[in-house]
Design brief:
alpha+beta; single chain; Fumarylacetoacetate hydrolase, domain 2
């Protein structure tokens, strides 16, 4: 099953497999249910009304987006190259405890075709294409979407304690275009692709797969939910290993295309 969120004259409305769900049934309710009950609810809730309207980010205001760092070898190498304290990233990569950090509230997340941003006080900015797992209120992985963890490498590289400013600001988080309802096994070897264009020219085009993750998605979800409750669920970006060359930085007017499995998330840069 495939969940999408749409703009309608009566406000945002959710759909499953191209059919609107009943008014009032959204992600808050679905992620408060056990995984099996969520599937049963979706199967019984089809209205037969074809979904229409612009796609919105597949998240409600009450959900949060979190992210995991240094989960791929390429990410470790890139962080070590940018930082004056490179050894801490090496330690995180090999540690038992995962790095997880807050990324955005639901209302801050951008959806397909909505603008992402680079900070005015940063000189080196990149997109980070990521598998974003959807976790329900019981800590179960129930789906995935595509994520873009837009980041300031210059700010994080200056001092790792600046991570929140490098990662959390207006326009730094995009997810979508929808949520594939699936268990963790469906996420073991999904292709991930990143393409960046500027003025009609492709500046970067790379591909990898989730099979290159250092940690399992269950491990990452476990660390996030170990001491925190998310009654209406949470979305967790699982890290990136597609990093443009060091001389590249995002600029306003660029277009970023993230593909995870069959999901395609495209955003202009403001």
């Amino acid at each position: 099953m495939y969940l999408t969120r749409h703009a309608t004259p009566h406000g945002p409305c959710w759909a499953v497999d191209g059919e609107f769900l009943p008014e009032g049934l959204g992600l808050d309710t679905l992620l408060s249910l056990p995984g099996a009950a969520m599937g049963e609810t979706l199967a019984a809730a089809r209205t037969g009304r074809a979904a229409a309207g612009d796609r919105l980010p597949p998240i409600e205001h009450a959900q949060e987006v979190w992210a995991a760092g240094v989960t791929y070898l390429r990410s470790r190498e890139a962080r070590m190259a940018e930082s004056d304290t490179a050894d801490i990233y090496d330690k995180v990569y090999d540690a038992e405890r995962a790095e997880v950090f807050f990324k955005a509230l639901g209302w801050r997340a951008m959806g397909p075709e909505q603008p992402i941003r680079v900070r005015r006080d940063s000189t080196w900015d990149v997109p980070e294409p990521e598998l974003a797992i959807v976790i329900n209120g019981e800590g179960e992985i129930v789906g995935y979407t595509a994520g873009n963890d837009v980041s300031s490498r210059s700010i994080e590289g200056e001092n790792p304690l600046y991570l929140p400013q490098a990662k959390v600001y207006d326009g730094s988080c995009a997810i979508g275009p929808g949520i594939v309802i699936a268990g963790a096994d469906a996420m073991r070897d999904l292709p991930i692709r990143l393409a960046i264009t500027r003025g009609g020219q492709t500046l970067f085009d790379g591909e990898t797969a989730t099979s290159q993750l250092k940690r399992s998605v269950e491990d990452l979800a476990g660390w996030l939910t170990r001491e925190m409750a998310f009654p209406v669920g949470v979305i967790l970006m699982t890290g990136t290993c597609l990093v443009p060359e060091d001389e590249f930085t995002l600029k306003p007017g660029d277009t970023v295309r993230v593909q995870v499995g069959e999901l395609v998330l495209e955003n202009p840069v403001a």
